[in-house]
Structures are given as structure tokens and as C-alpha cells.
Amino acid sequence: MDRREFLKTAAVATAATAIKLNAPAQTVAADAGVPTLVAVRNGDPVTMFRKGIEALGGMKAFVKPGQRVVVKPNIGWDRTPEEGADTSPPLVGEIIRQALAAGASEVVVFDHTCNNWKSCYKNSGIEAAVAEAGGKILPGNDEADYVERTCEAAVIMKKAKLHKELLAADVVINVPILKNHGGAKMTAAMKNWMGVVWDRQFMHRNNLPQCIADSILYRKPDLTVVDAYRVMISNGPRGVSLADVTERKYQILSRDIVAADAMALRIIDYEPAKVPYIAMAEKLGLGIADPAKINIRRIDA
Amino acid sequence: MSRIARRLRILVAAIVCVLASLGFVGIIPMLPQAGTSMLNAVATGAAAALIAALLFVAFTYLFGRFYCAALCPLGILQDFIGWISRKRNGTRKNLRMLRYAILALAAGFALAGWVVVARMVEPFSLFGRIFGGLALPGFSLTMQELGVSWWTGAYTATTAGMGFGAATLLLLIVLVWWRHRIFCTSICPVGTLLGLFAKYGVFKMALSDSTCVHCGKCAKACPAGCIDVKAETLDNERCLRCMNCIAVCRTRGIVWHRGASKNRKHAKLTADPTRRGFLLGMIGTTLASFGLGRGLKPGSAKGVPARPAIYPPGAGSAERFTSKCTACLLCVANCRGNVLLPPDSRNRFVHLDYAVGMCEFNCNACSQVCPTGAIRPLALEKKKLCRIGMAVFHPDVCIAVVEGTACGACAEHCPTGALRMVQEPGDPCPAPVLNEDLCIGCGNCSHPCPVTPVTAMTISPIPIQVEAEDPQTYFKKQAAPLAPETDDWLL
Could you tell me which chain B residue has the CA closest to the CA of A259? Predict the structure, then answer.
């Protein structure tokens, strides 16, 4: 954390405390009732998001009027929505609509894709969904759009280039899709942050799980929405055929990116030991990994 | 003085410029071209190419070489260079021997399977090398340098590609400065062939017996140099139908006539006194080069061995591709993975280089755009099975094996499931295991591999492209059992 960032955080924290002190008692009580994590199931991604975000206090709890919002889905692959490699387009659209309704000045979407970015944006259906919802989709394939930052707290990735839109945003919403992953075993909330970093090869080369945990330090998302409607359970993260994808019809919403991954493990039915970056992130103080300590609200949509 | 025809020609040429540019960047299909259609018909026997070639020939037989003035991108480019250099024209020598020799050689070799000989003279290929090799990457680089946000195209800019493009353009500029469209009247084999049809065609142009006042304005305006006022001839074989002469003539001294009926006198004057000699020479040269080409037939024992490299899906084999590709670079410009490269010092043919990119699985653009049929059209589903190389794993440099670093970048990107990360008991972390049956050599493993300077996954060239096993059926056989249906919360 550099000085400017520290001052910013300090100022925000002070302001927040001041507001809390002045706020009426019932607001504080209502805050206490907000769970750490909301799990929704048995609905379509849009309905599940509507119920889930309501339980977290509504989009207004995250987005204030005039703020710049970045929504970061997984658009890594040149595949169709049915193939379950990229985040559900209607879900991305709904998040954008709600952010704009909450007063966001602009909602920007991007991903540093694995395949040709134009094909990914188009064939995933996300480009169309973003345009329809009134958001703006930007390329993430140009190194010139990435800005170098350093982070002392990081264990390995002490410097990294991050997308300028992410750094400029007031609010960042992480919208991954839950998948099996050949290298990292599971990809959901934290693994999706590789798409805001320029040099992925560095991460692969230098202890991938630790680098994934480190990447969150550069800009923690304010909200994570894990799309687990379609779950790729084999041949991930790209998938080979429709046989790799199964419908689980879940969604996880949380301010805590580590908790989101810790619970996503159970949807894809993996042991925590299999996905070491979750424990690493908890060690960095990025969130809670122990399910017993996570305040969960379960909703049937 | 009728300027309308000339203006119409310029308008059509301008539209062609726009359409050809859009074709090159892949927004619309490329306009059919006479030369590439002929080569395609010869190389693949494709009906569409044959019909296109016949239409060009039939139109030229009827009205003359309008194609050369209004539709050929290289012709339009030469007119443009001539226009900005204020090139002055005049009556030019008729270099029959040169153009017939080039046509005979090119035709003979092309018919024998060596379409590649047209590479240095086929006009669309030359234009492509300028546009796709130099102009497009140059424009793209400039736009990126200026930070123009609406420009999102990234085109492969290689030193060799830009160098060849620049050299071709320079040569063209020199030729235009020297003798304006001498390339079209004396070198271009497509023009020569069309010219022969124009020469014996239906509607021809000529200097009028009655209205021509021999002022010579037309000859000075003619970029082909095909008007000789003193001899009162207009050589329809070389005439590009640019309509410049009609535009400058004040006495309506240039007329259209049907065949040889009206201006018999002029037809006689343009007739070649040693026609038989030329005809024999032509046929002899064509047959000789055909025979030579057959002797060196692509793939024959006597043939030059093709350079092993990764060639685009649909190329068939190294031998086939290197005997057919005229390097127009249309595939290079349309390559979504930016992995197709122009010929360079190491490989004199269009090829893939996984150091710069990877072949996008969900894309068959190169095989769809190839105008000469050097890359056969492949349906997307077939292309996804087309093996263009074979992955080779080098455990001695793989960081998962050597350093125990859990990486998996290769398996992560593999689109066919040919690579997977497997952890044997005692291994520090999972390492890649290759199933060769599923590998198509697309380089999606090699390109993202973080090992430098030589990646732990490389792709070896294979001599003949074959169909790999279909992953859809392969994995259906061993699909993972689905989790049991349960009403309990999973979390």
C-alpha cells in the first residue's frame, strides 16, 4: 500500500466511522443482519441475482450515484454461453442495469481474454448483453491499457500491470463462472482476477496459486457474484464438449472474495486442500476461508 | 468530348478500392479476381472459381479489358501512382515477345501444378503483398502509436512482410514512372491472357476514319500507350479501357465498332505479321514448361522437397501448399490468431509461428478467404479436426516437472482435451500428459507456455495434414458421472 492509497483508505474509514456514529440506531441493527455471503439456488441467473443482491442490502449498498463501476466477468474463451466457459450474459446485463439504476455514471466491462478478444466478446454473448444493458465493453488485450503497480504485501507478485479501468473504478464487481481448471484446479472468484493482470505467464511461472492470491491485493473487488448455474466439471477451463458442463443452478454473492471461493468449492465438490490459493488469500487477510465462520444466508429462488 | 465514361470508370475503381480494403480486413468477402480465380480453377478445379474466371474472360471477349482499368486493385493502384506523379504518356512499343513468354511459362507451370510460379507476376498477389504486408500493418501500427481508440485491428507486422511489400511498391512506382502501365501491357500474364480475348473480341475501340483529326491528345492520355495516331491504330489487346482517350478527344474521334466489320483497315494494321511464329513459340513454351513442371511434379521423387513447417489448416501438405501459394497475404490479414506470417528469410512461404500467436480453434478464416485454393476451404467443424502439426512435450524444461511449479498453462488452453495435467504418486505437482490422437497442432499449448527461450511444448511439422480423433466422441465415451440429484444444499 503506497502513501496515497493509505491516506485514501484512512480518509474513507474515518468518514465511514463518522457516518456510522451519526446514523440512527436501526440502520446499524439492519447492517448487522446482512450476511457475509448469500447463496441462491434453483432459479435462472438473473432471478437468483435479484434475490441475492436484495439480501445483501441491494445494489445501492454498493454503488453510489455518480460512481464509476467496473464489472469483470469471465470472457476468457471463444465459446457459446451453453458451453459454460464464460459468465452468463443475462447475469452480466442485469448487474449493469442495476448498477446504472443505482446511479453509476458509467459501467465498464472488460477481460484479458485467452482467445482472440473480439471473438470472445462476440461469441460469449457478453458484448451484446453489455450493449443492451447500457454498459461499455472495452478491450483488455492491449498492454498499453495496463498500468504498473507495486504491492509490498504480496508474497511473490510484488509488482504487476493492471488494467487502467480497474484502477480508475470506484466500485469493482467480480462476476466469475465456476469451472474445473486444469492448472489451478478450480476457477471461480479469485482465479478470475488473472483477467485484470497483463502478465499471466509470470503468474504461471512463479507459483500460480500464490500469484492468484497476490493479485487480489492490488484491487479487491467490492462484490463477487459467482455464476454457478452451469458448472464445467471436466476439461476446464476451456471445456471440450457439452458433456463437460452440468447444471447446478447456484449463485454465490459476497463482499468477501475468499469466502465466495471457499463456498464455491462445495458446489463443484472439491477438497479445500486441492485449491491452495484460498488458504493463501486468507493468510494475506483478504477474507475468511473457514466455512464455519462464514455467515451464510441460503435462498431458494 | 465525353468525360462520363472515364468518370464512371474512376467511380467504379474507387468503390473497388473500398470493397477490396474491407475484404482485406475481413469485413466483407474479397471481390473475385481474374488472376486468382484462374489459378484457383487450375489448382482445385472448384466450380465457383472456374465460373468466375470464365465470366471475366467472357466479359473481356465482349467489351475488352475493363477488368484491368476498373476492377484490378493493382491496376487501380498504378493509375493512382500515375495520377499523383503526373505521369505523361505516349505511344509505347508493343512488347509482344515478353508478355507472351511470361504467359506461356506461367500457364505451363500452373497447369502442371506449380501455381506458385505466378507469385511474382500475378497482380492480386502483388497487390496483396503491398496491402497486406505493408499498408495494413503499417496503418495499424500508426493507429496504435497515435492511440486512436476506435481502431482495434492488430495486423501482423513482420520485417520481411513489410520489406517485401515496400520493395514491391517501389518496383511498381519505378515502372509507372518509367512507362506508366507497362506492367499491365507487357508483364502481367492475366492481362496478356485477357488481352488475347480482347484482341479477337466483339466490341472494339478504334480511331475513326472520319472524325479523328490526328491531334494526338488520346495517345498522350493513354496509360497503356496503345494508341498510335500516325498508324491510326488503337491496339485493343493492350487497351485497358480506361476511357481516358474518349475523355480528351474533342472530335469524337474514338469510336466503338463491332468486330472487324467496320474498321477492317485498322484491324489489318494491328494484325501481327509473324503470327504463326508467335503462336508456335507460345504453344512450344507452354508445353515445355508444362512438361518441366510435370517432371518436377509436387511430391514427385525428382521434386524439390518442401520445407517442413506448420502450414494453415486446409493446406493439405507441405508439398501441395508450397506449390500453390502465391503469397497474396489475404489469409495473413484475416488470421484471427495473428499467427500466420508472410514469407521471411527462414521460410519462403506463408506459415504459422507459435512464438507470435496461436491458431484460434473457433476460426477457419484463412481457408475461407484463400483466393487461389492453396488453402482448401474447410468447414469449421472439419477445421477443428485438421491436424497441422504435432505437439511435443519437453519435460526437461517444463517448470512443473523440473521445479515442481503448478503451472498448467498448456492444458488450460488446449481446445481438444489432448493435454491434461496428471499427478503421478511422488510428483510434486501435476505435469502435462499428451494424447496424440486428439492433438491438432494448433499451438494453443505452445504459445502460452511461460518457459523461455524455448517453450516446454513445441509443435513439430507434419508432412501431410490429417484428421485427428474427434474429441466430442472421444470424451462422450468416458464422460464423468454427474453428481447425484439432491435437494440438500451443497453449501
Answer: B491
Q: Which three cell numbers stand for residue A126?
A: 457478453
Q: Do A78 and B472 touch (CB under 8 A)?
A: no
Alpha-carbon distance A224 to nearest alpha carbon in chain B (angstroms): 17
Q: Which three cell numbers stand for residue B405?
A: 511449479
Helix axes B47-63, B189-199, angle to 10 degrees: 50
Any CB–CB contact under 8 A between B476 and chain A? yes
Q: What is B389-476's CATH topology? A: Alpha-Beta Plaits (3.30.70)
Q: What nine digits make up the cell of A205? A: 511461472
Is the separation of the CB atoms in B236 and B267 below 8 Å?
A: no
Residue type, B361: F
Chain A residue whose CA is closest to B154: A142
Whole-number pLDDT of residue B372: 95
When CB atoms are compared, the residue of A115, A142, A241 closest to B476 is A241
Please tell me if residue A295 touches chain B, with a CB cutoff of 8 Å: no
> Does the pLDDT at position B1 exceed 60?
no
Question: Which one of A238, A243, A291 has the shortest CB-CB distance to B412?
Answer: A238
pLDDT value of position B238: 96
Q: What is the pLDDT of residue B260?
A: 59
Average pLDDT over residues B56-60: 97
Fold classification of A35-300 is: Rossmann fold (3.40.50)
pLDDT of residue B152: 75
Domain ranges of chain B: 1-383, 389-476
Confidence label for B151 from pLDDT (cuts 50, 70 and 90): confident
Half-sphere exposure of B317 (CA within 13 A, CB side): 8
- pLDDT, tens digit, 9 for 90 and up, residues B327-378: 999 999 999 999 999 999 888 899 999 999 999 999 999 999 999 999 999 9
Please answer whether residues B233 and B265 qualify as being in contact, where contact means their C-beta atoms are separated by less than 8 angstroms. no
Residue B219: what residue type?
A
Q: Does A201 touch chain B (CB under 8 A)?
A: yes
Q: From A40, which residue of chain B is nearest by alpha-carbon distance?
A: B489
Residue numbers in chain A where pLDDT is lower than 70? 1-32
Q: Where are the domains of chain A?
A: 1-33, 35-300
Cβ of residue A179 closer than 8 Å to a chain B Cβ:
no
pLDDT of residue A29: 36
Distance in angstroms (rounded) separating the CA atoms of residues B190 and B172: 17
Q: Is A272 on the interface with B (CB under 8 A)?
A: no
Instruction: With CB atoms and an 8 Å threshold, state whether A114 touches B490.
Output: no
